């Protein structure tokens, strides 16, 4: 089977992007995640105002919701790939786009196009809310530092979404993929906190260093670049495995 031309790849990308944009569950997930993030930001900011606000950083409080915010992006990634298996839509897709590896690769790329701005807006909205409410009490961080950390948070949420999409492609069903990923991020990973040497190489822990605000109270086992490298490596490995299996399995 011949490889599609660059023009065909552009059309495939457009088709995959169109499918994601017109999928109601994608927008419901993003809207729900945005609202939840603002509610959590308000809650953490309220706690900060009642406590020793003078010693706290706006970034620490504004990004405190990231642990919960990632759940929405996990769901987003899983829905992006598992939705096509509902009602056998994947068969129609493959009849139109016979290049399986290209199809799944462009789906991930289209998902990244949607995820990057959404992740930045959500991460920035939490920080902006906290800044608005605590600008006179909390320790303010320089703008360039804030931008770097917000970009790191955006990168982490994007990697998490793409990794989740790869897991969704492996399981092909929403519920099992959700159970595995949410179980890992919210149960298994926290239980390994007593083993930092190993845990730092997990995708979520390594990703944390991508946006960890500067602090003298925490030990930085990894630099932001190292954290980004490990997180991206996990994502690329899982996407590659998903593509290989997708090419070998029946639709």
UniProtKB/TrEMBL annotation:
Transmembrane region(s): 21-48, 68-88, 109-129, 149-170, 177-193, 228-246
Keywords tagged on the record: Membrane, Transmembrane, Transmembrane helix
Protein name in the entry: ABC transporter permease
Taxonomic source organism: Paenibacillus rhizosphaerae
């Amino acid at each position: 089977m011949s490889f599609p031309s660059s023009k065909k790849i552009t059309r495939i990308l457009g088709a995959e992007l169109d499918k994601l944009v017109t999928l109601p569950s994608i927008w419901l997930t993003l809207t729900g995640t945005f609202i939840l993030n603002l509610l959590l930001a308000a809650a953490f900011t309220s706690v900060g105002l009642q406590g020793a606000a003078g010693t706290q950083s706006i970034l620490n409080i504004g990004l405190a919701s990231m642990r919960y915010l990632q759940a929405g992006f996990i769901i987003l990634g899983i829905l992006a790939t598992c939705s096509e298996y509902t009602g056998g839509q994947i068969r129609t897709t493959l009849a139109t786009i016979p290049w399986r590896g290209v199809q799944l690769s462009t789906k991930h790329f289209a998902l990244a196009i949607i995820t990057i701005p959404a992740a930045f807006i959500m991460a920035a909205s939490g920080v902006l809310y906290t800044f608005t409410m605590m600008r006179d009490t909390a320790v303010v961080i320089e703008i360039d530092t804030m931008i770097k950390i917000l970009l790191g948070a955006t990168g982490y949420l994007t990697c998490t979404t793409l990794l989740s999409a790869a897991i969704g492609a492996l399981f092909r069903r929403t519920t099992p993929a959700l159970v595995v990923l949410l179980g890992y991020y919210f149960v298994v990973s926290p239980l390994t906190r007593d083993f930092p040497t190993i845990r730092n190489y997990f995708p979520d822990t390594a990703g944390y260093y991508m946006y960890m605000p500067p602090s003298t109270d925490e030990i930085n086992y990894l630099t932001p670049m190292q954290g980004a490298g490990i997180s991206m490596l996990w994502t690329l490995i899982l996407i590659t495995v998903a593509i290989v299996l997708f090419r070998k399995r029946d639709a």
